[in-house]
Amino acid sequence: MTPTFVQEAGRSVLAILPLLATAVLVLFGAVPIRLPDFEAVAPVLSLAAVYFFAIYRPSLLPAPAVFGIGLFQDALLGLPFGLSALVLLGVYGVVVGQRAAFRGRPFLIAWAGFALVIPIAMAATWAIVSLLAGTLVPPTAVVFQALMTIAVYPLVNVLLAALARLLPGAG
Amino acid sequence: MRLQRTGIVAILQPIRALLVRFAVISLMAVAFALMMVGKAEVVVVDRTRAAVVGAAAPVIDALSRPISTAVSAYHHVAGLFDAYAENQALKAEIARLKAVDQASAKLTAENAMLRDLTRLVPDNPVNFVSARVVGEGGGPFVRSVLINAGSRDGVARGQAVITGNGLVGRLTDVADHASRILLLTDLNSRVPVVIEETRERAILAGDNSERPSLAYLPPDARISSGQRVVTSGSGGVLPPGLPVGTVVVGRDGVPRVQTFVAWNKLEFVRIVDFGLDDDELPEAARPPAKRVGGAR
């Protein structure tokens, strides 16, 4: 066990941390919350994570990782297989192209951008699911889920920023 | 700024951006293709789903423990405030049920006697597997829950899931020790039912709302709010007579069903094996391979 080996092993463990953290956020989306008179619509935390990495450190979560996270979410939540992968990659692609507009600007700008991207992503998801099912999915819960997702973004941002600081290299 | 950079960076930067764009677009194409293929029921996709459900269920279960502790603490405190009113309601309920109990005892005896008289062939023996709900499905788009019982526990795809109150749904993705229940309320859920009072048949069609609708009712059906709806057993996939809910006719005139199962309180369920084996059914009565009952 040479130090170089340990260092390299350590580096590769660190390299998959962003992917793992995002996967854990997806898992949280499936945790049941049973409150009386409350139809739990969990926020889509994977969207928040992908948005964060696309702006600040795209190298930590490359496109294939986003793809994998999407398929994982589809299989876990029982969504049409490939749907989340498609939507997450769409968000990732658009945001990576615009990241210069957000870097070095106040957090509120990034949050506002998120509040702009999420309704579009959710509307796209809604349209695809409705098309596949051949009927319109009730939109109320979708709107509520979009609002929940926008509301929790600062929390995800804080957690992932702390994680990103641990990792070497500026994206 | 750009001029100050070394030549190699100046060349690599746009190439890298191009590569990222290429990767994103090609992977989106793959995802889209997967979605189309997945709709056509592919074994590999089904296996992948089941494998992910099997691997993730214990992790979700562990993650949910602190949350469920907090929620049950909340229920406990909230319950203290409601104790008096609840007590009164329960006393009234007991008084009502005593009468029902007596009537039912009389009917049971009578039923047994009549069965004896007519030598009715008894129903298949029923096997139960109990399971706990460990995870929830895809928010507004999919109505499903994950449970901690799978094929190794003796359950199989397509089997009915019930609680003490009524029908919950059917099993879809089944792993070794975890499975997914497609709830009655899901878009893809179709269950043949019958209005108990009038014996009129319909299909209970989920649409992701809390109350599934009654489709394919005969045009002259006598539908009114409060009628009980039970499974009809048509198609041989589910046994007849499982309680489902009561009819609610909304302002739009669409008959819907208020299910007996409260969707935000699902904790324990029973998977029922009625011995309705696929092999014993005629070809036409078999459920579709995927999303059982998911006629579109």
The count of helical stretches of chain B stands at 2
Oligomer: heterodimer
Poorly predicted sequence stretches spanning 5 or more consecutive residues of chain A: none
CATH class division of the domain at 127-285 in chain B: Mainly Beta
Intertermini distance of chain A: 30 Å
The third-level CATH topology of the domain at 127-285 in chain B is Thrombin, subunit H
Question: Mind telling me the C-alpha Rg of chain A?
Answer: 17 Å
Q: What is the count of β-strands of chain A?
A: 0
Determine the structural class of chain B based on helices, strands and strand pairing: alpha+beta
Please describe the topology of this protein:
The complex is a heterodimer of chains A (171) and B (296).
Chain A: H1 3-28, H2 45-56, H3 63-77, H4 83-97, H5 107-133, H6 140-166
Chain B: H1 7-39, H2 43-118, E1 127-136, E2 144-147, E3 160-162, E4 167-174, E5 179-183, E6 190-195, E7 201-205, E8 213-215, E9 228-231, E10 243-249, E11 255-259, E12 268-273
Antiparallel strand pairs in B: 1-2, 1-12, 2-5, 3-4, 3-12, 4-5, 6-7, 6-9, 7-8, 9-10, 10-11
Describe it for me?
The complex is a heterodimer of chains A (171) and B (296). Chain A contains 6 helices and no strands. Chain A is mainly alpha-helical and 171 residues long. In chain A, α1 packs antiparallel against α6 and α3 runs antiparallel to α4 (83-97). Chain A is globular. The mean pLDDT of chain A is 88. Chain B is α+β, with helices and mostly antiparallel strands. Chain B has a domain at 127-285: Rod shape-determining protein MreC, domain 1 (Thrombin, subunit H, Beta Barrel), CATH 2.40.10. Chain B contains 2 helices and 12 strands, in the order ααββββββββββββ. Chain B is globular and about 95 Å long. Chains A and B meet through α3, α4, α5 and α6 of A and α1, α2, β1 and β2 of B.
